[in-house]
Amino acid sequence: MATNFVQIENDSEIKRRLEAERARLRKIAGLDQPQHFHRPVERAFTADERSRVTILFGGFTWKHEDLIRAVFQGCGYRCEKLPVPNVAAFQTGKEFGNNGQCNPTYFTVGNLVQYLQFLEKEGLSRQQILDHYVFFTAGSCGPCRFGMYEAEYRFALKNAGFDGFRVLLFKDSDGIKAASGEPGLKFTVDFGFGMLNAMHLGDVINDLIYQIRPYELNSGETDRVFRETVAGLCEDLRNRRSFEIEQRAPDWTKPKFKSNKILRNTFNVFGKWHEHMWGKDYLHALHSAREKLDSVEVDRTRVKPLVKITGEFWAQITEGDGNFHMFDFLEREGAQVLVEPIATWVAYLMYQAKAHAKAKWPVNRPYRNPEWYELKKQFANYIGLRKKLWGIGAGERMWNYFYHRTIKHLGGITHQLAPQAELAELAHPFYNQFARGGEGHLEVGKNVYYTVHKLCHMVLALKPFGCMPSSQSDGVQSAVINKFKDMIFLPIETSGEGEVNAHSRVQMALGEAKVKAKTEFEQCLKSTGKSLNEIRAYIEEHPELKRPFYHVPHRAGVAGTAAQFILHVSERIDKDTRFWKRVRVGGSAIPATSGD
Ligand code: SF4
Q: Which atom of ligand 1 approaches the CA of 103 most closely?
């Protein structure tokens, strides 16, 4: 019978045919000569380029950015901040970036491309842009798409025709070590402390604006005064004279410092530290800022729901299209916004570093199973972990101390950092603290923390479209809401489109929060036994109560600013009344006594 089968006797012929078939299939599957990704070797940003290369950066609020730019400039760099990313930037990011990225990637990557295109329109050639600009950003190893940012920047820049544009990284995992291999950008002591001040000032001022503006008596005054204040602080950061022991030391010690490098460097580090944190110039700048800010007149009897903002790092910070201008919208709708400081994120990183070190120590310790008599090994195991924990713990304490110190010098009314241990503990039943990525357990932890301590009327989580960690948090938030029945929690997915829809959802939740705030206020007013007019009349007679930095002690269980305020004013009225009664009684008793 005739068949199509071919009998091949020869082994080498079989091998040849197999190879040919394999090659054909690999070609169809696109597996031929796979091109593996290698991080491109980038042209270094060298020290002698500093005077002609401009460092670009962005992604924070305008307050942080102005202050950070001032520090860069004060350290001798040319520096410019990128504009706030808008929808056009988002579309540019989509056009030149990969598919399937999260929303902040498109906004930030597109924003950089857009800025470079703007420079080109201004008359710079592409080569000039490549030679005279670099971009400075944070990077990470992930596990979310944050780890892809660097590659995304390069990919989009290449697609947009800016191949070879330099992207400098400050990795969050290296953040504690603060080291960079780029000699053009050196992390000196002045730079480090300057940045520390800039970040803390930015956070505190940002918080203050959102606390004061909803209550300002003269519309627009807060923005104007804060712009002037930030400009003044920038002046100080930019023009601060660097501490050099050889200039400050008495003449007879100068030769010693000149010849001994270790001695000189040690004194310089401590001197610079002192100058940046306790120096007269810095404290003077803070106090004049405080005086300026205290000049804004406020009326804190306005009843407003307090909305705590949580969510993904970038979406909860940006003040533009990236979160549908949510803060402006909330204020227009009559709410007070409680923003999240970047300092919480840094505190979270340090707290997590400690927790990870502890959890991994059984694997990482130098000796696995030392015998009971091997005391040296046991001690090495013990001290190895302690050294790590003490190091990070010291960093944590310093971070918190300097943050709260900035609060104290700028009026003392800014919110303190939420305790990380408590956030982790509150979140843990719902979200494992070791599930990394994005804000990790913070979204859940903050939601519970602000609700159980009655620190706000509503929690609004801003989470970008396509954000993996925020989607995880959202998944468990339904269990959280089930447990805490009086919680008003609204997650909003931010994107380049859908602003009207998002605003209308917020409006609905805000309606409930307004009722909550009003009920709380009415109960507090009733408890004082006074009318609102009486309280207002007292405020008119005591103008210090219209100052934003007038200290109103916090009362546990009351969230609203107006409710807290009237309780305090009522107490003052009662005290004054008791005092005048005493004076009157004392006054009438004197003639009676003397007449005896
Ligand atoms: S946290 Fe979410 S939005 Fe932010 S980088 Fe990661 S995946 Fe993207």
A: 3
Phi, psi of 54 (to 5 degrees): -95, 130
Rounded to the nearest angstrom, the distance between the alpha carbon of 146 and the centre of ligand 1 is 6
H-helix or E-strand containing 138? Answer: strand 133-139
In terms of pLDDT, which residue wins out, 579 or 490? Answer: 490
Q: Which atom of ligand 1 is found nearest the CA of 439?
A: 1
Report the candidate in 178, 177, 191 with the shortest Cα–Cα distance to residue 50. 191
**463 within ligand 1 shell (Cβ under 6 A):** no
Domain boundaries, the chain: 47-171, 189-293, 306-522, 536-589
Whether residue 305 has a cis bond before it, omega within 30° of 0: no
Query: How many A from CA of 85 to the centre of ligand 1?
Result: 16
Residue with tokens 């970008």: 464
Share of the chain above pLDDT 90, in %: 59
How is the beta sheet containing 306-311 ordered, strand by strand?
Answer: 336-338, 306-311, 458-464, 489-494
- Check if 467 has its Cβ closer than 6 Å to any atom of ligand 1: yes
pLDDT per residue over 147-180, tens digit each?
Answer: 888 888 989 999 999 988 998 877 544 433 434 4
Q: How confident is the model at residue 43 (pLDDT cuts 50, 70, 90)?
A: confident
Query: Strand 54-57's sheet: what is its strand order?
Result: 78-81, 54-57, 133-139, 166-171
User: Which residue's alpha carbon is at the smallest distance from atom 5 of ligand 1?
Assistant: 146
Nearest CA to ligand 1 atom 2: 467
pLDDT the model gives residue 2: 56
Question: Of the ranges 128-132, 165-169, 242-246, 592-596, which one carries the lowest mean pLDDT score?
Answer: 592-596
Ligand 1 atom closest to 463 (CA)? 3
ipTM of the modeled complex: 0.95
Give the distance (Å) from ligand 1 centre to CA of residue 95. Answer: 19
74 lines ligand 1 (CB under 6 A): no
> Distance (Å, rounded) from C-alpha 282 to C-alpha 406?
11
Instruction: Count other Cβ atoms within 10 Å, centred on residue 32.
Output: 9
491 pocket-lining for ligand 1 (C-beta < 6 Å): no
Nearest CA to ligand 1 atom 1: 438
- From 140, 153, 171, 312, mutation site for ligand 1 pocket: most ligand atoms within 8 A of C-beta: 312
**Model confidence at 299, in pLDDT bands (50, 70, 90)?**
very high
* 560 CB near ligand 1 (under 6 Å): no
- 190 residue type, one letter: D
C-alpha distances in Å from residue 492, one per residue of 11, 337, 452, 594: 66, 15, 22, 74
The pLDDT tens digits of the residues spanning 91-133 come to 999 999 988 888 899 999 999 999 999 999 999 999 999 999 9
| Residues 337, 343, 345, 351, CA torsion sign | negative
Residue of minimum CA distance from atom 4 in ligand 1: 438
Alpha helices, DSSP H, located in 310-412: 326-332, 342-364, 375-409
